[in-house]
Amino acid sequence: MCSSSSHNSPGPIVTMNCVVPLNSVIYGSLNRGFRRSFSSYGSLAQRFFSQVASLTNRYENVGVRGKEGVGKSLGFQPFSEHGKRAKALAAHRKKTTANLNISASKDVDMITSSEQLVGEGSKDVKLGSNISISPVKNDNQNSEVHGKQKQHSRSKKNEVHKVAANASEEAVEANGPQSSSQAKTPNAGKRGKNSTQALEKSSVGKTHVEVLDSSASRKAQLNEKNGNSCRKVKSIKAGNKSTNKQNSQERGKLNNQGPKALKELYSPLVKSVVVVESVTKAKVIQGYLGDMYEVLPSHGHVRDLAARSGSVRPDDDFSMVWEVPSAAWTHLKSIKVALSGAKNLILASDPDREGEAIAWHIIEMLQQQDALREDINIARVVFHEITESSIKSALEAPREIDVNLVHAYLARRALEYLIGFNISPLLWKKLPGCPSAGRVQSAVLALICDRELEIDEFKPQEYWSIEVKMNQYGPGSLVNGFSFPAHLMQYDSKKLNQYSISSVTEAKEIERKFSSVKFKVVSSKRNKMRKNPPTPYITSTLLQDAANKLHFTATYTMKLAQKLYEGVQLSDSKAAGLITYIRTDGLHMSDEAVKDIRALVIERYGQELASEHGPKYFKKAKNAQEAHEAIRPTDIQRLPSMLDGVLDEDSMKLYTLIWSRTVACQMEPAIIEQMLLDVGNDDESIILRSACSRVEFLGYQAIFEDVEVEAIRSKEKEENDRNEAVGILSLLKCGDPLWLGEVELKQHFTQPSSRYSEASLVKKLEELGIGRPSTYASTLKVLQDRNYVNVKSRVLHPEFRGRMVSAFLCHHFSEVTDYSFTADMETELDNVSAGLTEWKGLLRDYWTRFSSYCDRANSIHIHQVEKMLEKKFGASLFDSLPDKSRTCPSCMEGTLIFKVSRYGAGYFIGCDQHPKCKYIAKTLYGDDDEEEVAPQKDNIEEPKVLGINPGSTEKVLLKNGPYGFYVQLGEDRKGYSPKRTSVSHIKDVESFTIEDALELLRYPVILGNHPKDGQPVVLRLAKLGFSIKHRSSNAPVPKNVKPKEITLEKALKLLSSKDVRRCGRPKNKPKVEEAARAM
């Protein structure tokens, strides 16, 4: 709730008893029935937002600023004139709302900070009817409204929504998509003039912070014309998570109004600005579209939740505080400058909820910067592959922002923030050295730790197997016959299982009995099996195959795949994206793509290997969305050999893997012939079995014989070494005698479940429905960066720190680590994306439970945590002691227990008589005593060519020296010293790419000259990150600050901080030699 002494005089704002930061703006979404009284902004609003009366939509998902209660999209309505239609609609609405006896009039103010940051200017921004601004209200009014709200009956509420819905449909039918303004009240214009405020804007290089009050149930006061009474439409219940069928259909009907008004944006008639996410993508698309389009990158998100406590405010109906990084201002400025002469703004970020959110953020920021003129038309386009045809097709089918995807993004972001910023401080206090927890990462960590616990508690069981060799002729025969292996299947007329022979005594008894048995062929069976082709790749299966067959990490695979998706420069100087969108769980492919693949199969392998109808693939994994196509080459005729010299070695392997899998999925199944031969005694109480198989029809396996898959042939080609064995067994008939040859008794022990590899963990996550295609790789990376998990020989080992965190969370925050809960939460977020769940209700329902967990955990004493962990891991902790005794060897009175350092320095096993006895048996680790770091892999080919520097013809090399790995620009030659940069701080050197190398080689960078002495201020690489150097002063750059965000102003602040270190001899201090002479 906000309060201010004056509507017209700006001053400091107090929100939730906290002063809002400088240069901040509080945005709010008003409840149904409120009208925005900023008349001067009307024309701008009509161009952006869905034109539906705010009373019509029961499921108003407030929280997206400027959203007026429409289901799926922030309706941008370009290419329209609105003046006459708006007046007609206003009159119609006035008549409609009069029947409801509800008059929506309220003074609404935008409150801005009166203080400005240095170097910032201010500029008035006109605000209109559709901008969502927080009203200024006092507590007395709120309590009065709240009391009256409860008096409304359910029947009255239904009547209100029914009449409002009918009014909306009539208005839309009569006026088209221009029907968003509400009925005017007599004093609306006057109030609009009085309440318009100046919006302060940050200049490039400053951090902008704002509060987005996205409340769906904020209490709003509805005044009648005479101002003597107030009524309010009853709000949606907080826990309402799904819509009823009737209103879902009604909302879908309303949503279809928007796209009809959008015109095709290709062929170009006027200048347009297209915004994508990356520089590479922008360059490729620019080549397709020509000079009438200016394609600019946003470099990802232009703003995010402020990285501090209080950025999501549950008590203020989940209002959010957004922060704009300084680097984002540069990108926004470029877009703003480009819009000065453009007529269209086209938002072409990725086709997922993150891409939708980026588009929404950009519009929000440009509106605040007053960069959107009244004649600029805005549209959202999506494409799943970066080719000329797909880009132009997307421009021919523009749509609106999907508000449900934005809501899902807001819900996910708020959930992760609430979990992270509430659990992490508890971990710092209760478990020192454990930096963070998260919604998905904690569930994944629990999976890894549960498997480790399963391994610790596993008890092996002994069992034996018997293998024999059967000969065609006896030992005295002069004819050399054939022999074949067989294994015991049945003994004493009982079928054996794995544990039937449990000791060597039993095994030797069976061997002794074999010596007196005459064997013959009991039965011979042949059957044929169809082995279906593999499904096309989705994100999870691509990560699994890349790990199993190419030994790539998940992070490295996604990095290579992203490069293939965004596009490369081909040999004919044209740029193109090589594969479709990489974050997908859909198995389907377009009909055109399937047609092209089948044509290639017929051309290269023949008609008999092409699938007759083409298999239809459907995803069976939990929570599959199938929003995008499977991962496939954008042009199947682009063979891997055509990219020789264009792609580096690893990118070529990954492309070949995708190309071969895509071709194989549209080929005929392979036919496998299997031979089963049973050998036994006369009464068949003993049965030995021999089995072998061979490929009768190659089918899709013919792809692995193709020279195009040479890069992965050894990994893909299936062996058919047993063809000869099938031929031998087929010669035998029932009743043919056989002689016993060598008998081998094999001892075995049951093995525990193996630890997860990245591939098997991704498969498990997909089965359980935990995470999404876009989060698999990043989650695994976070666990490794936090030192919760260590990778050894491509297997994930949980560190003791990670096991403690998982045990603590399982004990006090069971929902966070519960697999089914995490999967169900993913389902709920998907329902929000589909418009089936109200996102505020989802947050409210979760926060009610989660906050109680936090309160209970916060009251726990650290000694209780110590006892819980000791009980959980006592066996492994104390078994590692030399004599395994719990008695203190120092005082002989105390007992050794697990302890957390008093000052949070680490963990140790010490005497419980402390401080009387200060004996420490074992120190586990502390903040300064880092855990053992996995040794660097030294199997990198020396030197490894990462690629070619685009600015020259020099190679970029990855080399290994006496001090670790480093990158080098150019080859060694006499009289030339190439530029080198150490990368010894990077754990996974195999995932290092040409882009990473070029980014590091650009340093050191001169940021500018120091204003005091004119000497350069340099941003350079240090042993542990980056540092700022000025003369003899060095200031470390915080780890959470990206080097691209460092400006001269920030560097000067770091140089004036207390962390500055000075190197070299202090001024006026004599040198060592001079000091020695003086002595």
TrEMBL record:
Reaction catalyzed: ATP-independent breakage of single-stranded DNA, followed by passage and rejoining
GO molecular function, one term: zinc ion binding
UniProtKB keywords: DNA-binding, Isomerase, Magnesium, Metal-binding, Topoisomerase, Zinc, Zinc-finger
Organism: Juglans regia (English walnut)
The keyword DNA-binding is annotated on this UniProt entry: yes
All residue ranges annotated as the Topo IA-type catalytic domain in the record: 402-854
E.C. designation(s): 5.6.2.1
Family statement drawn from the similarity comment of this UniProt entry: Belongs to the type IA topoisomerase family.
InterPro entries: Topo_IA, Topo_IA_2, Topo_IA_AS, Topo_IA_cen, Topo_IA_cen_sub1, Topo_IA_cen_sub2, Topo_IA_cen_sub3, Topo_IA_core_domain
Compositionally biased residues, Polar residues: 129-144, 176-185, 214-229
GO cellular component annotations of the record: chromosome
SUPFAM superfamilies named in the record: Prokaryotic type I DNA topoisomerase (SSF56712)
Positions of the UniProt region annotated as Disordered: 117-259
Residue ranges constituting the Toprim domain according to the UniProt record: 271-386
Protein name: DNA topoisomerase
Leading EC class: isomerase
Record's compositionally biased regions (Low complexity): 163-175
GO BP term, pick one: DNA topological change
PANTHER family (alphabetical): DNA TOPOISOMERASE, DNA TOPOISOMERASE, TYPE IA, CORE
Keyword Zinc: yes
